[in-house]
TrEMBL record:
PROSITE patterns: PROTEIN_KINASE_DOM. GO terms for cellular component: plasma membrane. Transmembrane segments: none annotated. This is non-specific serine/threonine protein kinase. Gene3D superfamilies: Phosphorylase Kinase, domain 1 (3.30.200.20), Transferase(Phosphotransferase) domain 1 (1.10.510.10). It is found in: Cell membrane. It catalyses: L-threonyl-[protein] + ATP = O-phospho-L-threonyl-[protein] + ADP + H(+); L-seryl-[protein] + ATP = O-phospho-L-seryl-[protein] + ADP + H(+). Its EC number is 2.7.11.1. Residues 1-44 are annotated as: Disordered. It comes from Nelumbo nucifera. GO terms for molecular function: ATP binding; protein serine/threonine kinase activity. Residues 19-34 have a biased composition (Low complexity).
Length: 350
């Protein structure tokens, strides 16, 4: 659930005032409009527009002609695929992923893949709302998440850490997203890591939909350091549902330690009973040892060398759900917003 309601957020994100995307066009290749799946959470997403095709001119206008000032991917211009923030004419904020030229040579194949991902609708996802094929251009359009990535808040914020209850929420919500995708026939997630976890306007974590689609028709599915890559992918170059669970285990390590620790090193620490050494010192001991032990145990299972020994997404949710005993915990992201509103002393914040 969201952690707060603020008129500052409403003012900053006016897309909530416009629930219908004004740029919908006729679906290509006779695709049906996505129904949102069978999950009731999808039905609750009335503010998410139907998946549709965007024109290149619309996206150029939204991103100020793909200005470098609008790049929000933390790898910046070195990233093989850039992500821009943008604002449509209906004032909806969007995220636009721009692929390198000819990453998907066949526009029909790109559109088919995008429509497959675009059928998904869930409150734990930063949902895909459209795509664009124009000449050599291949772009994906998703909901915009304004509060940065898990990686930024864990690794690059020196003065404010994510409290333990929020870390448990992140783990559960991403597990729920993976379970939903699996039940909807999209079990493969490419390169799951802390940069793929985004925080929405309410400070709640969501899983980026971009990872549900490969970087290219024939491209690699993992771009992170090989030390964090599932061992079976190194052997055969294929992503499996079990590979996704391995990557989820690396995210659990990030949440536990506040650092990016190679799985092999973390497993050595776990086997050596060095649990306290694994925990993030910025938590200053403010966590439940019992809960931390349960998460560490789950991470260890996810990181097993043999894929068949890893849990499935349903098991992940079943293990993490009982640990989330504070559903109303306020995200510090929302606290920062409320403080900002108070300092401004705007009528909306009073």
């Amino acid at each position: 659930m969201g952690c707060c309601g603020s008129s500052f957020l409403t003012e900053t994100h006016p897309e909530k005032e416009n629930q219908q995307n004004q740029h919908n066009q006729n679906p290509p290749f006779n695709h049906p409009t996505p129904s949102g799946g069978s999950d009731p959470a999808g039905a609750a997403l009335g503010g998410v527009p139907p998946f549709s095709e965007f024109s290149l001119s619309d996206l150029r206008a939204a991103t100020n002609n793909f200005s470098s000032d609008f790049i929000v991917s933390e790898s910046g211009e070195k990233a093989p695929n850039l992500v821009y923030k943008g604002r449509l004419q209906n004032r909806r904020w969007i995220a636009v992923k721009k692929f390198t030229k000819m990453a998907w040579p066949d526009p029909k194949q790109f559109a088919e893949e995008a429509w497959g991902v675009g059928k998904l609708r869930h409150r734990r996802l930063a949902n895909l709302i459209g795509y664009c094929c124009d000449g050599d251009e291949r772009l994906l359009v998703a909901e915009y998440m304004p509060n940065d990535t898990l990686a930024k808040h864990l690794f690059h914020w020196e003065n404010q850490t994510i409290e333990w209850a929020m870390r448990l929420r992140v783990a559960l919500y991403i597990a729920e997203a993976l379970e939903y995708c699996s039940t909807e026939g999209r079990p493969l997630y490419h390169d799951l890591n802390a940069y793929r976890v985004l925080f929405d306007e309410d400070g709640d974590p969501r899983l980026s939909c971009f990872g549900l689609m490969k970087n290219s028709r024939d491209g690699k599915s993992y771009s992170t350091n090989l030390a964090y890559t599932p061992p079976e992918y190194l052997r055969n170059g294929r992503v499996t549902p079990e590979s996704v669970v391995f990557s989820f285990g690396t995210v659990l390590l990030d949440l536990l330690s506040g650092k990016h620790i190679p799985p092999s090193h973390a497993l050595d620490m776990i086997r050596g009973k060095s649990i306290l050494l694994l925990m993030d010192s910025h938590l200053e001991g403010n966590f439940s040892t019992e809960e931390a032990t349960a998460v560490i145990g789950l991470a260890s299972r996810c990181l097993q060398y043999e894929p068949r020994e890893r849990p499935n997404p349903k098991n992940l949710v079943a293990t993490l759900s009982p640990l989330n005993t504070k559903p109303d915990v306020i995200s510090y992201l929302c606290l920062l917003t409320l403080i900002y509103c108070y300092v401004l002393k705007t009528p909306e914040s009073l």
